[in-house]
């Protein structure tokens, strides 16, 4: 990142270029200006077609840039930007957050636990959330993230989590994604480093977009990233711009950063598993949140909100923008889940976050008298109020959590390190590269890696120890970190007395002198009251009675109340909303006077103004409509709710009420007949409604005409050359003159102003008209639309701008950017008992009717990286809208005729339809599906993605059903068929249906037969065979199982949150239970046995035989039969004498044979000898003959030579 | 949500259908001599059932308790025999509120009484509601109310065709300038009396209206039927006296469309709120958590435009038609 000193450009002073430049300078800029004239051919139309094409192309590009303009609904003071830091484990997420926080706020946060909100700049706040390696958290956070910092361990490469997260993002509207490469210091070789960087960058680009930002964090210094690099990253984050995403701009949501259990402790004592009332705090994002609306908490379920209230911003932006940078006091840090929150104001209590060592000694700031007052003013039961106003031991709880978490985390990671299999994402096209890299220094790298890892672990061990030590220290004494916390408390608009109160409290406890301290407290209070609110005490009873006063009284009361209520917000939940608003105003004013207030200085003034205006402008209509209840009837009688002594209501007799409840339901407004339209005066009261009546000043025809004259009055008669001036012109000139004359006297100033305004108005009008004329050609539909949207946005901003917040939230709902407290009743107790701040809690607001359940039709595609196709009726976990839930989809495909045919499996590479029973979600919402959220079984967990198309209360999927029958009697084209149906009635339903045989003969069902039941007569287009099978193709409506099972992962015990398992698939069940279906025997493969082929003898007809030549005639060669017995020679049985003779003969013959053999051998040897001799002789002979031949040939040759010579001679002689 | 009594019966069911919240109405005329739902209300429920899919309705034996779980608005071609106790206007008003949020464009044929003194007549709705709906972006060929036949009180026999296209969302409106009246058009009709009667009505009306504006044309529509309706021009004046940008019968319609708009500010100038509208506002708050900012405008001193006007402002609920199919 270091910047290289670059050589500056040197201007040429000599040479051809310099000459050219000089020449140009001398000539001036003329040639440049008129390029078209200088070179006309370059700009002439060469080809009309090409020109048209280029024109089309530019136009196409232009229109492609257009998006449908949306009304800009971003709030003036936007909520903090949600920055999700995501990555596989041990990649440096916490370190990065820590570094960024340090970079922005100069504070050190040792433990990142829950969302951390900081003020990063003059106009921007950031909320950092760490995403742990759990698909539930990944899904939830992808839905709320504005910016994702995607950490990638460069020494390892991409892991599957990264790609899974990107795909999740893609479905739920793509937030900004910034990649951050860490562990770059493990590369010792510079070349490999750059190669790896490049490879990762390109892969990242293909996934996000070309040119997506990828950051490199090289190396750690003392367990932190390098300051300069973090600073750069921080800069990028703080200038990032965000696009509005459809889902988020139409739904309010809160990322809770604080949770309090408001349940009555007595109830918990009696029944530890009782449902809890919980209040959740956080910045409201998205859009307006209505009170009493429905919310979904991903991982828990649907709940309706009991109450929403807005609180002062715990992490406000600096209120004045004058300075160039923030000072230290303005760099706030707010992370209640991590134990940094300082002072938090609630509706009915003030929470102080103490250094963790003193957690047990937390005290309420409210003075005792205040408590009593609040109790007087209540209408709810004492118990409930006591419970609500109790001090919550947030800090203590958190610190305990932290300590407990710290140790096992460390140890677990040790184990993990050894065991965890990282899910590397390898891509086919990258394999080669990898190999190449590996070839070079694969071993070395891995060695390095290991070393590095070990180092890291050691480092972190040390860190863990140090943090633990810190905790110990804080427990013992207030050490350095608490001081820092105190620092960040200072700007939290803490009234002065709160601090002092605390100290007092401490000292009290040390000294145990309660009486004295109380006195002191009271003194403190009194001081406060003198400073800010003089009549605090008187306010209590007033407020108590207010609700029973009637309307007019109430207003008066509120006037008196205005100076009533004090710094500490007492409980006045029973009060009228308007009054409450006033109270809060006062409270705010109180803060201001206390001096520590820094937000919205002129708010109080504004509020009073608004209030006055409100009183003037809106009389009782609002109250009459919305005021005290349904039983006020405007036009009936105003004495309806008469009261006795301002305390008791007159109870109306039952009858009259009922009559009203059952009144005629008619929208017609019967006009009062007080006006007698025959009278002239009465009639004239509506005279101006007609065109013939009087017009307003600015629309009156006469004035308009006059103005027209002003504008277009001047004209020159071209024929005569006479110049006519507009009538008013002279006057105006005169006026101008007058103005000049009358500049001095102040009395005429008004007149001046009027004139000035008139002139300005005239100018504006002129300009408008000009614009209208001039732009008419250019103004497109798109521009109009855009302008309209802009106007609407402006109106949206302005309409309620000056209305006080308390009233405003009633009209608009709570607007995004507010810090709200949402009270939710009836949460399951596991939510509180198993609370883990590392898992995000999101309150997602639901639109009207989004809390209902119905059938959803969606377009679905199996993810191409998921390695199995999905099966119909296998449960699937969907992430849709805010929700994660398990459901049973049925897949279908739409046929050409619009029929939805059930599929058994999703197609491999194609979209298909899916119908589920699930929560009603607007069409066009994207979703993703996973098979399980527990553990990592699949290589790529996202099974499918898609979009919701339609919502309905019924299903239209049909399943193909073939009914099979067999003919049992066949006439010509008519057959009787049985086996297809069971009763006559069934057949009757299918009369006239078309049927078909397997061989393709079409037919029709005609009529049922009486016997056998279910048989029928059918006709076919051809005669059937008995072996034919007849089938009827029909469609059977499939029903979608009504399973909607929200994933309640947040209710799981701590440490087991990622083990949620819902319904198992059929395959899993069978696998788990060891059930194996016996396959159909016919479907099994058996060894192929081939029979030996047996050919029949060739039979040649006699006629043919006769005609054949003899050669080809079959020979009459019968096989020789057995020799008959009489022809068989009998066996000879010898006499002993004969035996002897035979033996002698045998012996003799063998002697003879031996002799013969011997003689033959001799003979053979002799012959061999002879042959040898003969060969020798032959060889000699040959030799001789050869020499002989040689001799003769030589002689012949010589003779020939001689002859040739002589002939040559002779010839020469001749020549 | 639970209610008591049959007051605002239509509002509750319509808003329940649009918001998807189930409704339980108890004590319907429980103290009456003739307890329970009336025939026209039953007919109305039947109409709702026809235009929706998956609606669950439970009524107890006496008809004093009604449980209504809304389904999804389906639309399509619907033919309904309206009960003659109330005119078609009673049914049509509710359909006007529901029609733009259907799955398929609605084409409803309603049969019954076209004009009666209690409910707004079909003609009135035709000339007031349709232009109002156009302001909210519901336009095109499909939007129309057509009187096919006229029918009078006891026998009925009238027929009205209502068609309406569907929309994804409503446009925000700013109807703060009432404008001026340029011309007056009207319909005088007579049923089963001498056709002269209609002409006489026209004459009498003209005589009064002519004092304001000369451009008047009143159509006469003669049909055979049991009685005739004495339309009074005085009525017209008083409505004018009260009127803002939207006439009193359509106040609730315009307020509903404003509520169901996108999350933008809408403004409408109304005449004095009718009790019906006031009830409607309360119900809107209950069903959609939307409150209107109500500002009273006092008439100017030299202006002669009738009575007080009320400027209604609200931020839409960001409602989108969840019934419409996307392809």
From TrEMBL, chain A:
List the subcellular locations: Nucleus, Nucleolus
Which residues are in the Bms1-type G domain? Answer: 78-243
Query: Might you name a Gene Ontology BP term for this protein?
Result: maturation of SSU-rRNA from tricistronic rRNA transcript (SSU-rRNA, 5.8S rRNA, LSU-rRNA)
**Stored CDD domains:** BMS1
Where do the TM regions start and end?
none
Regions of compositional bias (Basic residues) in chain numbering: 1-24
Q: Which GO terms describe its molecular function?
A: ATP binding; GTP binding; GTPase activity; U3 snoRNA binding
What is the name of the protein in this document?
BMS1 ribosome biogenesis factor
**Lineage, top ranks:** Eukaryota, Metazoa, Chordata, Craniata, Vertebrata
Automatic annotation (TrEMBL), chain B:
Molecular function per GO? RNA endonuclease activity
Q: Where in the cell is it found?
A: Nucleus, Nucleolus
An example GO biological process term is: endonucleolytic cleavage of tricistronic rRNA transcript (SSU-rRNA, 5.8S rRNA, LSU-rRNA)
What name appears for this protein in its UniProt entry?
A: RNA terminal phosphate cyclase-like 1
Q: Name one GO cellular component term.
A: nucleolus
Superkingdom, natural source: Eukaryota
Similarity annotation: Belongs to the RNA 3'-terminal cyclase family. Type 2 subfamily.
């Amino acid at each position: 990142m270091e910047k290289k000193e670059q050589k500056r450009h040197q201007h040429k002073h000599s040479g051809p270029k310099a000459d050219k430049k000089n020449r140009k300078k001398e000539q001036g800029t003329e040639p440049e200006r008129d390029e078209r004239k200088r070179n006309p051919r370059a700009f002439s139309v060469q080809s009309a077609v090409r020109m048209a094409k280029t024109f089309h192309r530019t136009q196409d590009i232009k229109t492609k840039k257009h998006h449908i303009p949306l009304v800009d609904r971003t709030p003036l003071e936007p909520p903090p930007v949600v920055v999700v830091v995501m990555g596989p484990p041990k990649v440096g997420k916490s370190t990065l957050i820590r570094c960024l926080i340090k970079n922005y706020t100069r504070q050190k946060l040792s433990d990142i636990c829950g969302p951390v909100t900081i003020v990063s700049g003059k106009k921007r706040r950031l909320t950092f959330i760490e995403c742990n390696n759990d698909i539930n958290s990944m899904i939830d956070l992808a839905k709320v993230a504005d910016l994702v910092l995607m950490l990638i361990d460069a020494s390892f490469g991409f892991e599957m989590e990264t790609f899974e997260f990107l795909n999740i993002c893609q479905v739920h509207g793509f937030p900004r994604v910034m990649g951050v490469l860490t562990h770059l210091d493990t590369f010792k070789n510079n070349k490999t480093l750059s190669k790896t960087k490049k490879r990762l960058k390109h892969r990242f680009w293909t996934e996000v977009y070309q040119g997506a930002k990828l950051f490199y964090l090289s190396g750690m210094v003392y367990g932190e990233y390098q300051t300069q690099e973090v600073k750069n990253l921080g800069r990028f984050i703080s200038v990032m711009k965000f696009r509005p995403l459809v889902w988020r701009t139409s739904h309010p949501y809160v990322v809770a950063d604080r949770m309090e259990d408001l349940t009555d402790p007595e109830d918990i004592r009696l029944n530890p598993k009782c449902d809890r009332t919980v209040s959740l705090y956080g910045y409201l994002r998205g859009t307006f949140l209505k009170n009493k609306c429905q919310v979904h908490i991903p991982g828990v379920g649907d709940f309706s909100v009991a109450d929403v209230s807005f609180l002062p911003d715990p992490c406000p932006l600096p209120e004045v923008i004058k300075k160039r940078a923030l000072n230290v006091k303005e760099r706030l840090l707010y992370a209640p889940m991590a134990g940094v929150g300082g002072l938090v104001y609630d509706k009915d209590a003030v929470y102080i976050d103490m250094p963790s060592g003193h957690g047990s000694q937390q005290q309420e700031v409210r003075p005792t008298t205040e408590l009593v007052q609040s109790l007087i003013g209540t209408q709810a039961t004492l118990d409930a109020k006591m419970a609500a106003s109790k001090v919550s031991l947030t800090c203590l709880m958190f610190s305990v959590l932290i300590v407990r978490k710290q140790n096992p985390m460390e140890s677990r990671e040790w184990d993990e390190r050894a065991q965890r299999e990282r899910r590397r994402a390898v891509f086919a096209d990258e394999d080669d590269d990898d190999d190449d890299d590996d070839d070079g220094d694969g071993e070395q790298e891995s060695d390095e890696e290991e070393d590095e890892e070990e180092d890291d672990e050691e480092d972190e061990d040390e860190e863990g120890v140090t943090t633990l030590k810190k905790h110990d220290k804080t427990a013992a004494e207030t050490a350095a970190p608490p001081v820092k916390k105190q620092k960040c408390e200072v700007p939290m608009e803490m009234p002065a007395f709160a601090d002092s109160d605390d100290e007092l409290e401490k000292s009290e406890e040390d000294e145990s002198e309660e009486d004295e301290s109380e006195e002191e407290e009271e003194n403190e209070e009194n001081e406060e009251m003198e400073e800010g609110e003089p009549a605090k005490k008187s306010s209590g009873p007033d407020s108590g009675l207010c609700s029973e006063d009637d309307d007019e009284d109430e207003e008066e009361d509120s006037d008196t109340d205005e100076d009533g209520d004090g710094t500490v917000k007492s409980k006045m939940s029973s009060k009228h909303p308007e009054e409450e608003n006033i109270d809060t105003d006062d409270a705010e004013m109180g803060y201001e006077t206390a001096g520590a207030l820094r937000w919205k200085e002129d708010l109080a003034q504004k509020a009073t103004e608004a209030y006055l205006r409100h009183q003037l402008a809106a009389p009782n209509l609002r109250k009459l409509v919305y005021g005290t209840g349904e039983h006020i009837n405007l036009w009936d009688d105003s004495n309806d709710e008469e009261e006795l002594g301002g305390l008791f209501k007159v109870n109306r007799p039952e009858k009259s009420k009922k009559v009203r409840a059952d009144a005629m339901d008619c929208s017609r407004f019967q006009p009062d007949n007080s006006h007698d339209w025959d009278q002239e005066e009465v009639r004239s009261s509506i005279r101006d409604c007609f065109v013939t009546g009087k017009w307003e000043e600015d629309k009156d025809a006469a004035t308009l005409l006059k103005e027209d004259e002003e504008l277009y009055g001047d004209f020159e008669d071209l024929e005569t050359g006479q110049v006519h001036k507009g009538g008013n012109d002279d006057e105006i000139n005169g006026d101008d003159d007058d103005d000049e004359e009358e500049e001095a006297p102040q009395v005429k100033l008004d007149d001046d102003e009027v004139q000035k305004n008139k002139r300005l108005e005239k100018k504006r009008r002129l300009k408008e008209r000009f614009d209208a004329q001039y732009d008419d050609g250019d103004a497109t539909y798109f521009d109009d639309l855009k302008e309209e949207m802009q106007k609407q946005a402006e109106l949206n901003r302005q309409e309620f701008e000056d209305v006080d917040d308390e009233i405003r939230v009633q009209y608009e709902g709570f607007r995004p950017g507010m810090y709200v407290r949402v009270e939710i009743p009836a949460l399951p107790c596991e939510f509180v008992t198993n609370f883990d701040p590392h898992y995000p809690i999101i309150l997602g607001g639901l639109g009207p009717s989004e809390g209902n359940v119905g059938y959803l039709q969606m377009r679905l595609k199996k993810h191409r990286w998921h390695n199995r196709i999905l099966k119909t009726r296998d449960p699937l976990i969907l992430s849709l809208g805010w929700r994660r839930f398990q459901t049973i989809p049925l897949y279908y495909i739409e046929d050409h005729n619009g029929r939805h045919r059930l599929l058994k499996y999703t197609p491999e590479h194609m979209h298909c339809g899916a119908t589920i029973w699930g929560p009603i979600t607007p069409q066009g919402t994207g979703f993703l599906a996973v098979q399980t959220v527990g553990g990592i079984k699949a290589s790529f967990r996202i099974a499918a993605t898609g979009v919701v198309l339609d919502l309905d209360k019924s299903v239209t999927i049909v399943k193909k059903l073939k009914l099979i029958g067999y003919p049992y009697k066949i006439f010509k084209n008519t057959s009787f068929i049985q086996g297809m149906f069971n009763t006559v009635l069934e057949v009757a339903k299918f009369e006239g249906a078309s049927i078909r045989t397997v061989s393709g003969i079409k037919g029709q069902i005609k009529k049922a037969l009486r016997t056998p039941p279910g048989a029928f007569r059918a006709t076919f287009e051809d005669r059937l065979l008995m072996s034919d099978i007849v089938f009827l193709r029909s469609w059977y409506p499939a029903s979608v199982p009504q399973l909607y099972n929200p994933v309640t992962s947040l209710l799981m015990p701590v440490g087991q949150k990622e083990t949620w398992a819902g319904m198992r698939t059929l395959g899993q069940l069978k696998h788990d239970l060891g059930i194996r279906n016996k396959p159909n025997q016919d479907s099994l493969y058996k060894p192929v046995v081939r029979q030996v082929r047996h050919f029949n003898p060739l039979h040649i007809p006699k006629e043919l035989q006769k005609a054949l030549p003899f050669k080809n005639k079959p020979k009459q060669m019968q096989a020789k039969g057995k020799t008959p017995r009489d022809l068989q020679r009998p066996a000879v049985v010898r006499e002993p004498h004969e035996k002897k003779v035979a033996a002698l003969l045998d012996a003799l013959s063998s002697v003879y044979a031996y002799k013969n053999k011997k003689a033959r051998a001799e003979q053979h040897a002799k012959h061999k000898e002879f042959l040898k001799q003969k060969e020798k002789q032959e060889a000699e002979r040959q030799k001789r003959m050869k020499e002989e031949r040689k001799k003769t040939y030589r002689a012949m040759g010589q003779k020939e030579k001689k002859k040739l010579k002589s002939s040559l001679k002779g010839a020469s002689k001749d020549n | 949500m639970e209610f008591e009594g049959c007051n605002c019966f239509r509002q509750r069911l319509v808003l329940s259908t649009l918001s998807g919240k189930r409704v339980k109405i108890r004590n319907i005329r429980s103290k009456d001599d003739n307890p329970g739902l009336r025939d026209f209300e039953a007919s109305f429920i039947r109409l709702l059932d026809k235009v929706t899919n998956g609606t669950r309705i439970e009524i107890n034996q006496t008809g004093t308790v009604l449980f209504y779980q809304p389904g999804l608005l389906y639309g399509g071609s619907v033919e309904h025999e309206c009960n003659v106790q109330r005119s078609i206007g009673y049914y049509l008003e509710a359909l006007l509120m529901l029609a733009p949020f259907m799955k398929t464009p609605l084409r409803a044929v309603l049969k019954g009484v076209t004009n009666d003194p209690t409910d707004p007549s079909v003609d009135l709705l035709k000339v007031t509601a349709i232009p109002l709906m156009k302001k909210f972006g519901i336009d095109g060929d499909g939007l129309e109310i057509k009187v096919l036949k006229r029918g009078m009180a006891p026998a009925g026999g009238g027929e009205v065709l209502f068609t309406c296209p569907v929309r994804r969302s409503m446009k925000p409106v700013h109807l703060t300038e009432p404008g001026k009246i340029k011309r007056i058009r009207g319909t005088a009709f007579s049923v089963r009396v001498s056709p002269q009667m209609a002409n006489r009505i026209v004459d009498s009306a003209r005589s009064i209206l002519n004092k304001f504006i000369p451009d008047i044309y009143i159509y006469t529509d003669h049909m055979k039927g049991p009685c005739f309706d004495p339309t009074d021009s005085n009525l017209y004046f008083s409505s004018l006296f009260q009127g803002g940008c939207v006439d009193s019968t359509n106040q609730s319609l315009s307020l509903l469309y404003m509520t169901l708009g996108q999350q933008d500010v809408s403004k409408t100038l109304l005449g004095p709120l009718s009790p019906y509208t006031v009830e409607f506002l309360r119900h809107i708050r209950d069903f959609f958590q939307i409150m209107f900012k109500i500002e009273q405008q006092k008439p100017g001193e030299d202006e002669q435009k009738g009575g007080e006007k009320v400027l209604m402002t609200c931020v839409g609920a960001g409602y989108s038609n969840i019934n419409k199919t996307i392809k």
